[in-house]
Amino acid sequence: MWLVENNAILTKDNLLRRHWIGDPTCYFCNENESIDHLFFLCPIARITWGIIGFCFGANSVPKNMQQYRFWIAKWLPGGNQMYTSGCAEVQKQSMF
Questions:
Q1: I need a labelling partner for 59 at 20 to 30 A (CA). Which of 20, 26, 70, 77 fits?
Q2: Tens of pLDDT, residues 54-83
Q3: Are the beta carbons of 63 and 25 closer than 8 angstroms?
Q4: How far apart are CA 33 and CA 68, in angstroms?
Q5: Mind giving me the DSSP string for 45-94?
Q6: What is the mean pLDDT of the segment spanning 8-17?
Q7: Does position 92 have pLDDT exceeding 60, yes or no?
Q8: Measured at the alpha carbon of residue 64, what is the angle toward residues 67 and 14, in degrees to the nearest 5?
Q9: Cβ atoms of 48 and 38 closer than 8 Å
Q10: Interatomic CA distance for residues 1 and 7, integer angstroms
């Protein structure tokens, strides 16, 4: 999640800024790919967050990094590094 917070993941919008030539749309839907889209807004990400939330009894899903921090604090008391790493891994695995 450190990479997400620091906009360091080479999502298609970041690649385009580096003069990459390619399709900027998400592989899973027709929206332009960005970090927020890939981790929070894409329908696949939202389903993944819904499944994670269901496992923890959450009734909401985060839509951006700020909401993610609040979500962790609310639904995973303590919100320690293990939770952050675990959520990042689940998101990564669901994309492949």
A1: 26
A2: 988 999 999 988 898 888 888 887 765 555
A3: no
A4: 19
A5: HHHHHHHHHHHHT-S---SSHHHHHHHHHHHSTT--HHHHHHHHHHHHHH
A6: 87
A7: no
A8: 155
A9: no
A10: 10
Taking the C-alpha atoms of residue 91 and residue 69, their distance in angstroms, rounded to an integer, is 15
Please say whether the beta carbons of 42 and 54 come within 8 A. no
Residues 86, 96: Cα–Cα separation, whole Å: 16
The residues with which 62 forms a beta bridge, in sequence order, are none
Tell me which of 82 and 32 has the higher pLDDT.
32
| Residue 61 · residue 50 · CB < 8 Å | yes
Average pLDDT, the chain: 82
- The whole-angstrom separation of Cα 9 and Cα 39 is 11
